[in-house]
Specification:
By secondary structure, this protein is of the alpha/beta class. It is built from eight helices and 17 strands. It has two domains: 182 residues, FAD/NAD(P)-binding domain (3-Layer(bba) Sandwich), CATH 3.50.50; 154 residues, 3-Layer(bba) Sandwich (FAD/NAD(P)-binding domain), CATH 3.50.50. The strands form four sheets. It has a seven-stranded mixed beta sheet with strand order 9-15-10-11-12-13-14. It is elongated, with a radius of gyration of 22 Å. Helix 4 runs parallel beside helix 5 and helix 5 runs parallel beside helix 6. Bound molecules: flavin-adenine dinucleotide and iron/sulfur cluster.
C-alpha cells in the first residue's frame, strides 16, 4: 500500500491539506496547473482578506511558505493530472508533464472560477470601461489607488451591484456565493479609506453578511464609513451624455423607478464551478452536482468523500466557500484520507 497523498490544486484548500498531511508524517505530491501557488487570492490579487484584515499576499503567502521547502512535499507547478488508474491505497496518476505519481489517496482542491461578467451584458461590463468587477477593485486597493479606468480620475461616486452571477435563475446561477456581501461591504470601507471624498452605494436584493460579519462589515460600513445601502432591482447600466454611468432600476422599498449617475460601477461577481470540472470529472471518475460543482459522497459519516473511493473533494470545488472554511475542509480531507488508508492496513493485517 502507498500512503502518499496526491493533492490537486494549491489554493487555500490544497495548501491547508498539504500542510496537514505533511504534519501527520505523510509524503505529499501537490499538483497545481498555474505557475504560481496560492489560488484565487493570489492569482486574482485580492487586497485585505475578510475577516482577518490581513493582506492576501501575506496570509496566503504564509500558507505557501509552509509547504514549500519541506522535505515531505513535492510540488509540480504548471501541471495537471492527465489520467489515473487504481483504487484507494494504490493509485497511479500520469501528469501532463509526463511524470507518474503513485499515491494511496487523492485530494481534489481544484476550487472555483470567478463569474465572467460578460454573461450579464445589460449591466455594462465589457461595454463601458468604468464598469469593473470586485476583483479589479481588490487590485486597485492593493495598489493603493481607486481610479476610473477610462481616464484615471478618482471617482466621486461608486456603486457596487451585489449578486452579479449569483442568485440569478435567468442565467442558470441559482446559488448564493456566500462571501460577496461581506467582501463588498469591506471594499466599500477600503474605498472610503483611500478616497474619503468618494461616496459609495451598495445596491442589494438582501444583505447576507453571515455569522459574525454582520456588525464588523454591514453595520460598521454604514455607521463609520457612511456607505449607503439601496434595496433595488437593477435593470441596466448605460451611459449619459456627460459619459457618467447611469444605473437604472427600481427602488424596491419605495417601489419607484431610479436612474442614478455614477463614475464607477462595480460588479460583485460570484463563484462559478471551476471551468475545468467536466475534465476533472472525466479524468478522476468523480461526479458533478447539478450546478457543475464536484459532487459529495455522503455528508455526515463520510464527509468530503467524492463519489469515487479514495478520492476526496473539498473547499470551493464543492460550492462557494470562504477561506476559513476551505482551510478546515483541507484538514478534514486529510483526516479522512489517513483514516481510510489506516483502515485498509488494519483490514490487511
Ligand atoms: C472577489 C472575491 C473576493 C474574496 N475575498 C475573500 C476574503 O476576503 N476572505 C475569504 O475568506 N474569502 C474570500 N473569497 C473567497 C475565496 O476566494 C475562496 O474561499 C478561496 O479562494 C477558495 O480556495 P480554494 O483553494 O478552494 O480554491 P481556489 O482559490 O480557486 O484554488 C484552487 C486552485 O486549484 C488550481 N486548479 C484548478 N483546476 C485545476 C486542475 N484541473 N489541475 C490542477 N490545478 C487546478 C487553481 O489554479 C487554484 O490554484 C473571495 C472571493 C471572491 C470572488
Ligand atoms: S453573498 Fe450577498 S452578494 Fe453574494 S450572492 Fe449572496 S446575497 Fe448576493
Amino acid at each position: 500500500m502507498n500512503d502518499t497523498v496526491l493533492i490537486v490544486g494549491a489554493g487555500p484548500t490544497g495548501l491547508s491539506a498539504a500542510a496537514g498531511a505533511a504534519s501527520a508524517g505523510r509524503k505529499v505530491v501537490l499538483v497545481e496547473k498555474e505557475k504560481v501557488l496560492g489560488g484565487a487570492p493570489i492569482l486574482s490579487g485580492y487586497a485585505r482578506l475578510v475577516p482577518s484584515g490581513e493582506w492576501a499576499k501575506d496570509a496566503v503567502g504564509r500558507m505557501v511558505a509552509r509547504v514549500t521547502g519541506g522535505a515531505r512535499v513535492t510540488i509540480h507547478k504548471g501541471a495537471k493530472v492527465a489520467g489515473i488508474e487504481g483504487d484507494l491505497g494504490n493509485f497511479a496518476a500520469t501528469l501532463s508533464n509526463g511524470q507518474t505519481v503513485n499515491a494511496g489517496a487523492i485530494i481534489l482542491a481544484t476550487g472555483f472560477t470567478h463569474f465572467d461578467s460578460i454573461n450579464k451584458p445589460e449591466w455594462g461590463f465589457g461595454t463601458y470601461e468604468d464598469v469593473v468587477t470586485t476583483t479589479q477593485v481588490e487590485q486597485m486597493v492593493a495598489s493603493g489607488k481607486i481610479t476610473c479606468p477610462s481616464d484615471g480620475r478618482v471617482p466621486e461616486r461608486v456603486c457596487i451591484l451585489l449578486c452579479v452571477g449569483s442568485r440569478d435563475r435567468q442565467i442558470g446561477r441559482e446559488w448564493c456565493s456566500k462571501i460577496c456581501c461581506t467582501v463588498s461591504t469591506n471594499l466599500a470601507m477600503e474605498i472610503k479609506e483611500l478616497s474619503p471624498k468618494t461616496d459609495v452605494y451598495i445596491y442589494y436584493m438582501d444583505i447576507r453578511t453571515f455569522g459574525l460579519y454582520e456588525d464588523k462589515y454591514y453595520w460598521r460600513s454604514q455607521e463609520e464609513f457612511r456607505t449607503k445601502f439601496v434595496k433595488a432591482r437593477i435593470a441596466e447600466v448605460t451611459q449619459g451624455p456627460d459619459k457618467r454611468l447611469l444605473v437604472k432600476g427600481e427602488d424596491t422599498l419605495v417601489k419607484r423607478p431610479i436612474v442614478i449617475p455614477f463614475d464607477l460601477v462595480v460588479h460583485a461577481i460570484g463563484m462559478d464551478p471551476n471551468l475545468d470540472n467536466p475534465e476533472i470529472a472525466k479524468v478522476f471518475g468523480v461526479g458533478l452536482e447539478k450546478h457543475g460543482f464536484l459532487e459529495r459522497g455522503e455528508h455526515y459519516t463520510s464527509s468530503f468523500a467524492s463519489t469515487r473511493r479514495g478520492i476526496y473533494a473539498g473547499g470551493s470545488a464543492l460550492g462557494p466557500e470562504d477561506i476559513d472554511t476551505c482551510v478546515s475542509h483541507g484538514l478534514a480531507m486529510v483526516m479522512r484520507a489517513i483514516g481510510d488508508l489506516n483502515a485498509l492496513v488494519q483490514k490487511a493485517a
